[in-house]
Amino acid sequence: GQSLEQPSEVTAVEGAIVQINCTYQTSGFYGLSWYQQHDGGAPTFLSYNALDGLEETGRFSSFLSRSDSYGYLLLQELQMKDSASYFCAVRVAGTGGFKTIFGAGTRLFVKA
Amino acid sequence: EAGVTQFPSHSVIEKGQTVTLRCDPISGHDNLYWYRRVMGKEIKFLLHFVKESKQDESGMPNNRFLAERTGGTYSTLKVQPAELEDSGVYFCASSQGAGAYNEQFFGPGTRLTVL
């Protein structure tokens, strides 16, 4: 079957750096995405990695190693507003196209 | 441009009742997805429409769930009769394309509570 593993909770202080890891077991893998969701809000897209390596977008970076079936989201210069749930998601071959499979999410608490 | 909208935001019903959730995707997005998140667990794929056609409904849990997208615009997801385990947040998402790299835009979800 398809599965993703990510920590359930992470706590960090404002201004720090935090890394949220994601390991996956899938077939038909195409890429790894990250989504952010604030309480009661819509998940919003952060990044997509199809190739190995690090992609940087402002304070957020995402990394993928296809050979290790592993990726991470790196958040730098943490701000209080970064407190949210972060979901890794894999893009895999599905019926007639592609399908997105999500992890259970990592709840990030940023403390002052 | 308006984002994905969902109605209602919350619904509380009793076991055995029927509930219909609605999703309005971003205008022009042919691809529409339904997902469900049960408390603390993963956001689970339910199905995928391309325009009015069901492209992939492999995630639908059972025949108590019926999704439609008549006319290829908004979509409804009906649960009949609802059971306790159907409680959760139902998300709708839409995208312009359905390629491997494909940003999905999510709605805020409908929180369904079955008592």
What's the topology here?
The complex is a heterodimer of chains A (112) and B (115).
Chain A: E1 3-5, E2 9-13, E3 18-25, E4 29-37, E5 44-49, E6 53-57, E7 60-65, E8 70-75, E9 84-94, E10 97-102, E11 106-111
Parallel strand pairs in A: 2-11
Antiparallel strand pairs in A: 1-3, 3-8, 4-5, 4-9, 6-7, 7-8, 9-10, 9-11
Chain B: E1 5-7, E2 10-13, E3 19-24, E4 31-37, E5 43-50, E6 53-56, E7 65-68, E8 75-79, E9 88-95, E10 105-106, E11 110-114
Parallel strand pairs in B: 2-11
Antiparallel strand pairs in B: 1-3, 3-8, 4-5, 4-9, 5-6, 7-8, 9-10, 9-11
Question: What oligomeric assembly is this protein in?
Answer: heterodimer
User: Structural class given helices, strands, pairing of chain B?
Assistant: mainly beta
Q: Tell me about the biggest sheet of chain A?
A: 6 strands, mixed
How much of the sequence lies in strands of chain A comes to over 45%
Anisotropy-based shape of chain B: globular
- Low-pLDDT regions of chain B: none
Supply the helix-strand structural class of chain A. mainly beta
In DSSP terms, counting alpha (H) and pi (I) runs of 4 or more, how many helices of chain B?
A: 0
Kindly provide the radius of gyration of chain B, computed on alpha-carbon positions and rounded to a whole number of angstroms. 13 Å
Summarize the amount of helix of chain B as a percent range: under 10%
Mean pLDDT of chain B: 94
Tell the overall outline of chain A. globular
Most extensive chain interface and residues per partner? A-B, 28 and 29 residues
Determine Rg of chain A (CA atoms, Å).
Answer: 14 Å
Count of DSSP E strands of chain B?
11
Tally of extended strands of chain A?
A: 11
Sequence stretches where pLDDT stays below 50 over 5 or more residues of chain A: none
The pLDDT mean of chain A sits at 94
